Fold this protein.
Amino acid sequence: MKIVAIETSCDETAISVVECKGDIATPLFQPLSEVVLSQLALHAHWGGVVPTLAKREHEKALVPVLQEALLKAKLLGIQSQNSKGQMTNEIQISNILNREQTLLPEVIKFLETYDTPDIDALAVTQGPGLEPALWVGINFAKALAMAWQKPLIPVNHMEGHLLSPLLSNGEQFSISLPADATHQALQAGNFQFPLIALLVSGGHTELVLVKAWGDYQKIGQTRDDAAGEAFDKVARLLGLGYPGGPAIAAMAAKFQSLNAKFQINTIQLPRPMINSGDYDFSFSGLKTAVLYLVKKLQENDPLVLERDEVKASIAYEFQEAVVDVLISKTTRAVEEYGAKSIIVGGGVSANKRLRESMERSLTSSGRETSLHFPTQFLSTDNATMIAAAGYIRWLEREKYPLPNAASIQAEGNLCIGIQKL
Ligand code: KG4
Ligand code: ZN
């Protein structure tokens, strides 16, 4: 079936059209088009995502992004003269998009111009995320579902990240080796249950036990800041800009190249909760440790942060601390639950050091656990993963009936699975 998926939970307006096949044991996905419009430059100016700005930008972007996604998927057809202007449900659409006054005329014009595309369902991110941003995507999806008379599947964004390693942006159907995979431990299609998923994004850090696709149990999460959030905050402290993850990673790589041989760092930071015996995380103390360290260094030299080698040392040690904690907890979960595969998803899974260190740690443990990362492009927010999660919901619809489209609400704190008591 063809699913049009819409993602607006944060600062990316993303729409993908994905051909989905297979059963719940072996779902298969082929993206027909993937369009992502990032608001990054706009939010960088404020040092982080501003929810009201995000909502405004999603409103502006959704119709052009949809148009491009359908065009690339060869599903955009101009209406014939006969049917032109025969939109019967304009009043209902106005009601659905009552709070999206910028988007409403664009949607009406779009629906008057183009035919109903040959698709089977729509999927939309319901949460977690920024509620004003989520609502735009949801109301847009409701309007399209109504006008096109297609089912609408609400999706958990984190389930999308969890499924992202199943996707490839290659040409063929496959649960495949990601296109940029260079890791020995990556094995095509070799997902085995139970598996442990480490989800690390800007808003979440959680470990999930997966017994089958669609069957998730959260076993641990961060008690304060998410890993991505810590990257962003520490980058701001070091004056590296937003988003912090790639900026810290680049600085840390500089340290590695400057100290290629020994990598001895005089700076040391804590590994919070590494021996806590549970699967929870805490990253806000690590950020505070960086803050105190910077203040102390500035007492001796107020211009210390002008020096690249100092920033590089701090960035490197911070990244090592985060990576050490993530790997340690994931490894413990793998052992306790006898996991046969590991999935890492979410924006922080783009981190090269995390990828390399995780692979190294797995290889040296001698375990036969397969390791799966999404492609670089699918690590951060995108709608292809939302289509994948939508398809899993669709396959499970008899067990968990889908709600009526009109009743779908944004849920900023939507959880994946059940917290283990
Ligand atoms: O999953 P995502 O795109 O959005 C959310 O759902 O939050 O994740 C964004 C987060 C940001 O905090 C960003 O700094 C982080 O992912 N990130 C990275 C890297 N690329 C993005 N963190 C570490 N290393 C990276 N290369
Ligand atoms: Zn995300």
Confidence is low (pLDDT under 50) at residues 169-188.
